[in-house]
Amino acid sequence: KRQGNNSTNIPVRVYNNTGTGGSPGSTALATQNVSLGTIKNNVTAQAPTIVTFTTPVTVTTPFYVAVGLPTAAGDTVALYMTETSTNYAWEQWNTNAWYPFSSTDTWNMNALLAIWPIMCPTGTYINELNNTPVTIYPNPAYDGISVVFPYPADTKVDITITDIYGRVCLNKIIHTEYGDAQYLDLSNLSNGIYVIKGESKYGKFIERISIIK
After folding, report:
1. pLDDT tens-digit map of 112-140
2. Distance CA 171, CA 11 (A)
3. Mean pLDDT computed over 75-84
4. Helix ranges (DSSP H) in 14-107
5. What is the pLDDT of residues 153-209, one digit of tens each?
6. Alpha-carbon distance 140 to 211, whole Å?
């Protein structure tokens, strides 16, 4: 539902797992705000909301990413949720205590929320090649896309394509040919918004692509 004041800030927070029973800790490691207007625009475009922390967050233990739901009248935000065999979701009450979704005091179900962190390992090698963008066309696509990488020939690139729910639709390793397009067959994908991520020794990229048939 697209409702609320566009200027309302929705906090996205990172917590470690140092709370009781492995729950989120009492203090957030970092907070990054995203406006409700930005989220509404993404919903209209059937695109995920990608939140980039101004200062990268360093984590050394398992961690959680949380979204603060608005409390002002008229402001509404919802997260996709799926039932799983193991619970991964927690909610924080106004007492600041955390409760798992599996608790009979909350949802009484094992759940997974639609939040997917994008990680960059410490010491990842980045050089000037990252200033040259990866080219993806056509976008929107019909049954496939071509990708041109600014990397030397025979660079190994790990490609992953996910849908807006984070489900992996394609994962493959390709070896580039400098300046030449690499074709990815997406004919098995349905209409919608997808995220393509790539990783090589020169760094990472992430882009949104659309499939329209």
Report:
1. 888 877 766 555 444 444 545 788 888 88
2. 31
3. 84
4. 36-44
5. 888 999 999 987 788 999 999 988 766 788 999 999 988 888 898 888 887 888 888
6. 6
- For 119, the token pair is 């990680």
Cβ(81)–Cβ(90) below 8 Å: no
Has this prediction a pTM greater than 0.70? Answer: no
Amino acid in position 173 = I
Name, in order, each residue with C-beta under 8 angstroms of 78's C-beta and a sequence gap of 6 or more. Answer: 1
Report the candidate in 209, 44, 211, 205 with the shortest Cα–Cα distance to residue 132: 205
* Nearest Cα residue to 116 out of 61, 179, 67, 45: 67
DSSP for 131-188, written as a single string? GSPPEEESSSBSSEEEEE-SS-TT-EEEEEEEETT--EEEEEEEE--TTSPEEEE-TT
Q: How many C-beta neighbours within 10 Å does residue 64 have?
A: 23
